Amino acid sequence: MTTDHDQLTIHEAHRLLEERRFSSVELTRACLDRIRYLDERVGAVVTVTEELALRQAAEADKRIAAGDAGPLTGVPMLVKDNMCTRGVLTTCSSKMLESFVPPYNATVVDKLEEAGAVIIGKANMDEFAMGSSTEHSAFSPTHNPWDLSRVPGGSSGGSAAAVAAGEAIFALGSDTGGSIRQPAGFCSVTGLKPTYGRVSRYGLVAFASSLDQIGPLTQDVTDCALVMNAIAGHDNRDSTSAPIPVPDYTQCLNGDVKGLKIGIPKEYFVEGMQPEVEDTIRAAIGQLEKLGASIDWEVSLPHTRHALAVYYVIAPSEASANLARYDGTTYGFRYKDGESMWDTMEKTRQFGFGAEVKRRIMLGTYALSAGYYDAYYLKAQKVRTLIRREFDEAFEKFDVLVTPTSPTVPFTMGEKLDDPVQMYLSDVCTLPINIAGLPAISIPAGFADGLPIGMQIIAKPFAEETILRIAHAFQQATDWHEKRARI
Ligand code: GLN
């Protein structure tokens, strides 16, 4: 193969596959080779599905030859390891599910297979998606391809790092409080968290069910639209998925942002934020202004400052309920030498879960326990409503809100591992969006000393098209998204 495949987007790969410049089998082999060559250092992939991938690629080549190829047909990709893949390990990067092989596919996986995408493996993550650095993987941490001594963000750090390193052309991630956008920002790729209910969660291992969403991590906004076309939509098997028709997300990529109203909420330029991040995002917003959008720099969302506290009551509460199923009786790890049923359950959880997961379970169990429920969980739900209303009001005036994705550039590995609150703070800009169930994207907006900085664009529910339109216009006018990590 002559093409430098790690430069390829989905739309470029599609064109070259259609032109028979290479086959899907060749492209797939190239990605598999790159994983073999690079992943010892990056640590983005937990399971390589070589046989399955080559079979799917051969099928894709037949479809291409028959003139029956869609935009994703034959394109190699990774699935975050918390989405069920039939016959393929789905570990959530946890000892608890180290040998779990699901008998069914997540809906998104079915949809991607129907579209002809080639699944080359499963991406590393923080255990059960709890974390912001992918250092909480029970297997090994993932490294940032831009600087291997730094974290790629999390919890979809494997997905983001793999795309940034050219190990896969795109990946799926999940986002409960920032886990698609923050790693996208840290690895200089494009990551969209769709509106809650836009994409089916069937087959996604649940972390916090009222917050979790699946979305794409890609090289650019066009690719993001192509993946959304394939995965969005109602699903009878997920009662929280919305019965709202799916538009063709590529239709809104028309470069036209003239007259769009953009609000800049000042609370997102938080105290303690890295000055280079603030400068870069202000410059990027200036670019949007040049393209014809009107900017209001003085928007205020005062309830935002409670979002972190609300999240760390609601998410652990839901997690403590969702993770109760891992008790050694149904599936996953089971402690062998228990003295009684209770002892087996206790030890299963003691040895099966890592420290961060246990911390969340304890926080959640406490917040839900008798006497504390009203003070913590119920109160958090009330504040959640206030946060959502505040966004509703803002979207009466503005088409989108723009903020940094994170307050800092990627931090050094180990830096925040012993300080959970510092780790939690790296999601201050992304968490409120999940609390309100909104769609938001992170796109590359610049660098500080060679380290990526992401810009977040937020819209009202089901206005993904507005986000994609603005993000695409930005990418037409800039080349941050074309810069590739050289490793
Ligand atoms: N970092 C946040 C947490 O640890 C968000 C994780 C996520 O979005 N899955 O909970």
Radius of gyration, taken over Cα atoms and rounded to an integer in Å: 21 Å
Q: Could you give the order of the helices and strands?
A: HHEHEHEHEHEEHEHEHHHHEHHEEH
For the termini, the CA-CA separation is 20 Å
Percent of sequence in beta strands: 5-15%
What fraction, in percent, of the residue positions are helical?
25-40%
CATH topology label of one domain: Amidase signature (AS) enzymes
Strand adjacency order, main sheet: 1-3-2-4-6-5-10-11-9-7-8
Identify the bound ligands: glutamine
CATH hierarchy, class of one domain: Alpha Beta
How many helical elements? 15
Reported for the largest beta sheet, the result is: 11 strands, mixed
Describe the protein's architecture and organization.
By secondary structure, this protein is of the alpha/beta class. The protein has a domain at 6-259 and 463-482: Alpha-Beta Complex (Amidase signature (AS) enzymes), CATH 3.90.1300. It has helices spanning 10-18, 24-42, 50-65, 107-114, 157-164, 181-187, 221-231, 275-290, 307-322, 341-352, 355-368, 374-397, 420-425, 431-435, 464-477, and strands at 45-48, 76-80, 118-123, 170-175, 190-193, 213-218, 261-265, 294-299, 400-404, 440-448, 451-459. Strands 1-3-2-4-6-5-10-11-9-7-8 form an 11-stranded mixed sheet, sandwiched between helices. The radius of gyration is 21 Å and the shape is globular. The relative contact order is 0.14. Mean pLDDT is 96; it is low at 1-5.
